[in-house]
Amino acid sequence: MTDDGTETDLDLGHYERFIDECLDWNSNVTTGKIYWSVLQKERRGDYGGGTVQVIPHITNEIKSRFYHGTPDGEDRISIIEVGGTVGDIESQPFLESIRQFQHEVGRGNAVLIHVTLIPYLKASGELKSKPTQQSVKELQAMGLWPDILVCRSERPIPEELREKIALFCNVPKDHVLQNLDVEYLYEAPLAMEKENLAKVVCGALKLPCPEPDLSEWREMVHRLKSPESEVEIAIVGKYIQLHDAYLSVVESLKHGGIAERASVKIRWADAEEITEENVAERLKGVKGILVPGGFGTRGTEGKIAAIRYARENKIPFLGICLGMQMAIVEYARHVLGLADAHSSELEPRTAHPVIHLMPEQDGVTDIGGTLRLGAYPCVLKEGSLAEKLYNAREISERHRHRYEVNNEYRDSLEEKGMILSGLSPDGRVAEMLELRNHPYFIGTQGHPELKSRPNRAHPLFRGLVHAAAEYQRQEEGFYGQSES
């Protein structure tokens, strides 16, 4: 999810984390978008009734996206990734568009970098270059001649193998770069700098290549690889069988750990298996609890039980989107005494819909059309923990939800000790919550994990890791005193 509300795959999130830029809809081009745009143009009559074909209509549409977002008169270098595998039928129109694009702008103005695999055969103890040769041959048959080969490998590529690849793939030997497996993902830019990727690319484009300042990134990697402590934080979710569903959350916890010089150990807790009876057993020993977003009723009672456990036992807690909404439900049930309080999204018949549609959304059935997507502003309460963490009064977070805190219950919640510490600028939408007399209990309607960076951890995740480490130190001190 980008600031402008574009929903993309995980790769774009990694790009944002590495380059520390907020990308937008121009940065993600899918087959569906291309064909949809062409169909709309055909319906408008843009093609004058002519037959719509892959070439030139689809390829022209793809090429037009290469220039989107470039201000007039400004020269920029565009990095264009074509996903998938060479030979896949899905990517053929995109590869043909790349061929045409390079032909139009000139080979000296467009460099083709091909990422290939050099597998290691354990049985024979050797690296094999045949997959790379075959992949390059496939590209050459399409009219694409790679300028640089980035070879993925789990073992160092010897010089003689590089020479062989260069010979059979028709590239200079110093354009055959190895991309070795690294222990941590964030080491990859440093590894590629060591391989002189930037110098080779700039040389191919006949551009100057000043020495980059990677000191901050190196320091970040050093902190990642040499933590001074370890804390265990539970992620209570219902998609935990597929860890990639929470990839941005996991990465953000790592970022918080980097900032706090702590290694974050994650305990995956299945919300569907957690009950009021077993929650203490399932979450025993964790120093922090995070309840991420999600849709649907499945696992919500387990999330509520985990939130109650965090609240009553003063365990640091962060609730994101649905996690914040379930924190409202839990508080309404067990503090306000509204036993059947719920979200009207999950239980339409509840007598106390503490989470409800905004009035203007009632009766709208097209869910996708009413989701709050993208960045929304938020004003933080003066003196709140949220204001302290962000070190600002006005912030912006990305959203992806439809239901909000029901304003009819806001006074009751605050009278019982909850602080609605973040509101929309007009005061109508509750964006953040926290609790008095709790070391760290924060909920946010946004998705802060989408704006965290490895060298600039998001304040809410850094705060959670810091609070978890402090909770651990206090716990260790308590048990140490008891033993003495």
The CATH topology of the largest domain corresponds to Rossmann fold
> Helix count?
17
Largest sheet properties: 9 strands, mixed
- Please state the second-level CATH architecture of the largest domain: 3-Layer(aba) Sandwich
| Strand adjacency order, main sheet | 7-6-8-9-17-16-15-12-13
Please tell me how large the radius of gyration is. 26 Å
| Structural class by helix and strand composition | alpha/beta
Terminal Cα span: 52 Å
What number is the mean pLDDT? 93
List keywords for this structure.
single chain; 484 residues; alpha/beta; Rossmann fold; 2 domains; 9-stranded mixed β-sheet; 38% helix; globular
Describe the model.
By secondary structure, this protein is of the alpha/beta class. It folds into 2 domains: 111-212, P-loop containing nucleotide triphosphate hydrolases (Rossmann fold, 3-Layer(aba) Sandwich); 227-476, 3-Layer(aba) Sandwich (Rossmann fold), CATH 3.40.50. The chain has helices at 10-19, 31-44, 54-65, 92-105, 130-141, 159-169, 188-194, 197-204, 215-225, 247-259, 279-282, 300-312, 322-334, 367-370, 385-390, 410-415, 459-483; strands spanning 113-117, 120-121, 126-127, 148-153, 176-180, 229-237, 262-270, 288-291, 317-320, 342-343, 353-357, 372-380, 394-401, 403-405, 418-423, 430-435, 441-444. The strands form 4 sheets. Strands 7-6-8-9-17-16-15-12-13 form a 9-stranded mixed beta sheet, with helices on both faces. The chain has a 3-stranded parallel beta sheet with strand order 1-4-5, sandwiched between helices. Helix 9 (215-225) crosses helix 10. The longest helix is centred in the C-terminal third of the chain and has 25 residues, at 459-483. It is globular and about 75 Å long.
